[in-house]
From TrEMBL:
Species of the source: Vulpes vulpes (Red fox)
InterPro entries: Leu-rich_rpt (IPR001611), LRR_dom_sf (IPR032675)
Places the protein is found: Cytoplasm
Keywords: Cytoplasm, Leucine-rich repeat, Repeat
Protein name (database record): Leucine-rich repeat-containing protein 51
Originating gene: LRRC51
Keyword Nuclease applies: no
Record has Secreted as a keyword: no
Entries under SUPFAM superfamilies matching the protein: Outer arm dynein light chain 1
A Pfam family: LRR_9
Cross-referenced PROSITE patterns: LRR
Length: 192
């Protein structure tokens, strides 16, 4: 299967689903059987899955150590991963490894233990991210939570399972001007 054929067909593939498997560490995925869905998973000649979706929700993960390595063992084209569901785990931060999947368009992180709103900044490098969930994390309680996320990630169209409207964007922009101080540009004395 050529790379182009893969890009055209794999979006239709069912997810590699490891939800509700009591997984504590990412390495457990290599010995755990994924859940079977209505449609069977297709695999490459090497035995790796041809999907673009990985569901790890409702487990006991508290970090993503070895995520890249394990995903490369499971998926034929890990660079094309478009949907990662890590909801309902014990993650306390947004692991930078997630920012290495440039085709990621859907990321579910709701129901975790993410403490700092600034963690969202890491996701700004993902050019195709359109749908993000973070509700059910401690950061949801911070003042300006929704506005901060929408300012930081202006390309997302769905946040916490709600569509992002023009009014949301306008409110976020006003909030940004009132709450986020612009970075001061410092001119070196020697440069003058």
């Amino acid at each position: 299967m050529s790379k182009q054929d893969y890009m055209n067909t794999s979006v239709q593939e069912p997810p590699l689903d490891y939800s509700f498997r009591s997984i504590h560490v990412i390495q457990d995925l290599t010995s755990e059987e994924p859940r079977s869905g209505l449609r069977p998973l297709r695999h490459s000649k090497s035995g790796k899955s041809l999907t673009q979706s990985l569901w790890l929700n409702n487990n006991i993960l508290n970090d993503l150590r070895d995520f890249n390595h394990v995903v490369s063992l499971l998926l034929e084209h890990p660079e094309n991963l478009a949907w990662i569901d890590l909801s309902f785990n014990d993650l306390t931060s947004i692991d930078p490894v997630l920012t290495t999947f440039f085709n990621l368009s859907v990321l579910y992180l709701h129901g975790n233990s993410i403490q700092r709103l600034g963690e969202v900044n890491k996701l700004a490098v993902l050019p195709r991210l359109r749908s993000l969930t973070l509700h059910g994390n401690p950061i949801e309680e911070e003042k300006g939570y929704r506005q901060y996320v929408l300012c930081t990630l202006p390309r997302i169209t769905t946040f916490d399972f709600s569509g992002v409207t023009k009014a949301d964007r306008a409110t976020a922009e006003v909030w940004k001007h009132m709450n986020i101080k612009p970075k001061k540009v410092r001119i070196k004395q020697n440069a003058l």
